[in-house]
Design brief:
Number of helices: 4
Oligomer: single chain
Order of helices and strands: EEEHHEEEHEHE
Distance between the termini: 9 Å
Radius of gyration: 15 Å
Strand content: 25-35%
Largest sheet: 6 strands, mixed
Strand order of the largest sheet: 2-3-4-5-6-7
Structural class: alpha+beta
Length: 153
C-alpha cells in the first residue's frame, strides 16, 4: 500500500464539459454491472482475478462514491471507505480507457476529497496503481517516506 496525505485541493464544480464531452458527476455508486465493466477496463485484472459477485459485494462497504456519467453511461468512478471521523481510504478510482485524459479522474478525486473534508475526516489516504503517482501528486497528495507508517499483508 502506498500511503498519501492530501494537501489543499481546488474547489469542486457541479458539472463540466471537456472536449465537447458532457460529463455528469453524481454522488452515487455505479451499479454492480457498471462497476464490473469499469474494474475490468482498468487493467487490474492482470493482478487480480475477481468474480463478478465479489466485485458486487464490495460496493456496500463504500462510505461515499462518485460516478461520472456520459449520456447516462458510467465512464468513471471513485470510492471512499471511511469511519467518517478519523480515516478515509480512497480506492477504485477508475476511468474508462477511451475517456482518460479529459479531466474526469481529476474531478472524481476532487469530489471524493471534498466530501472527506466536509465531514472533517482527519486523515485521507489512497491506494495508487503503479505508474499513477504523478497524477495524485498533481492533486496535492504526498507520498509517504519509505520508513513511514503503512504496511500490507
Amino acid at each position: 500500500m502506498i500511503g498519501w496525505r492530501p494537501a489543499q485541493l481546488i474547489g469542486v464544480g457541479d458539472s463540466m464539459s471537456l472536449d465537447d464531452l458532457a460529463i455528469e458527476y453524481r454522488g452515487e455508486l455505479p451499479t454492480a454491472q457498471e462497476f464490473e465493466r469499469l474494474f475490468r477496463s482498468s487493467g487490474w485484472t492482470e493482478a487480480f482475478t475477481v468474480p463478478a459477485d465479489r466485485l458486487e459485494a464490495a460496493l456496500p462497504s463504500a462510505w461515499y462514491a462518485v460516478c461520472a456519467r456520459r449520456g447516462g453511461e458510467a465512464v468513471g468512478t471513485g470510492i471512499v471507505l471511511s469511519d467518517g471521523v478519523l480515516h478515509a481510504l480512497i480506492v477504485d478510482v477508475i476511468v474508462m480507457p477511451e475517456m482518460r485524459g479529459h479531466g474526469i479522474g481529476t474531478e472524481i478525486m476532487r469530489r471524493l476529497v471534498a466530501r472527506c473534508q466536509e465531514a472533517g475526516v482527519l486523515q485521507v489516504q489512497l491506494f495508487s496503481a503503479r505508474g499513477k503517482r504523478d497524477f495524485y501528486e498533481r492533486l496535492g497528495f504526498v507520498a509517504r517516506p519509505d520508513d513511514g507508517p503503512g504496511m500490507e499483508l
